Amino acid sequence: MASGDLERGTKNRRNNTNFSSYYVETAEKQWTSWLIPMFVVANIAVFIVVMYVNDCPKKILGSEGSCVAKFLGRFSFQPLKENPLFGPSSATLEKMGALEWNKVVHGDQGWRLITCMWLHAGVIHVLANMLSLVFIGIRLEQQFGFVRVGLIYLVSGFGGSILSALFIQQNISVGASGALFGLLGAMLSELLTNWTIYSNKIAALLTLMVIIAINLAVGILPHVDNFAHIGGFLTGFLLGFVLLLRPQFGWAESRQFPADGRVKSKHKAYQYALLLAAIVLLIVGFTLGLVMLFKGENGNEHCNWCHYLSCVPTSKWNCQN
């Protein structure tokens, strides 16, 4: 956005792929999805509150342009030159809890690492993210329940905020995309750790990798916070190894064998190995990230090429701001 805030991207609509066709059905319980719809309602409700607080007609000056959709009254949008996503001003987003490095580190406002994931830069931003959340989240919640999926969503959003704050320190950042990328990362690790229960393994893996690659590629555009995407994805990827284990193929049937028959172990050794490795990496990653953040470290000083992960300059735009 022209005013300098970053939205955490919009996920490609292709990520509504149904992986059930690759999965070998088991007798596992199917959950009713209610938490993901609640997250959707909460995000939309927060956006409405933000627009109410923004009150464009009262605050905009004539020289700055005119509000968009004036018939909405105080819910009308900032001029498109300032916010092309049909949303509030940067000042309003910052007031409502956007991620802003200086306030987090020097203003004792660490709560912004959480509140920013419930804010969105505009109607286009919130609708794209909520559609993606419905397509990705409901399937996961039906298969794994609200506790595990809710944890992945929230912790991934937090992880995305930490990485974003380490590398983007001149702009504010908002959006749920870090949490959404966490769900995508969890889908990938779930596929890998539960490899034996999938039928068309390679097809499922390639499909998911293409979806992830496309969505990460969007993050190299200007004004998109790809560090939040990457941080959320890595967090969700590791959490998937911890929270989304399934019994190996044939375990349930083996329990029905006679007493002297061989019963398969519930999980394979590699699943436990991945679980332990993921726990260690999560603890180390979050500890290191939080320590660096609150010490005021700038991630770009430790990685002079990492800025290209969030914006690649071209003849059409630059990445200085």
UniProtKB/TrEMBL annotation:
GO cellular component: Golgi apparatus; membrane
Keyword terms: Hydrolase, Membrane, Protease, Serine protease, Transmembrane, Transmembrane helix
Record's subcellular location: Membrane
Known catalytic reactions: Cleaves type-1 transmembrane domains using a catalytic dyad composed of serine and histidine that are contributed by different transmembrane domains
Principal localisation: membrane
One Pfam family it belongs to: Rhomboid
Transmembrane segments: 34-53, 117-138, 150-168, 174-195, 202-221, 227-245, 272-294
Any Gene Ontology biological process: proteolysis
Enzyme Commission number, as recorded: 3.4.21.105
GO MF: serine-type endopeptidase activity
Membrane protein topology class: Multi-pass membrane protein
Peptidase S54 rhomboid domain segment(s): 109-244
Protein's job: Serine protease involved in intramembrane proteolysis.
Family from the record: Belongs to the peptidase S54 family.
Descriptive protein name: RHOMBOID-like protein
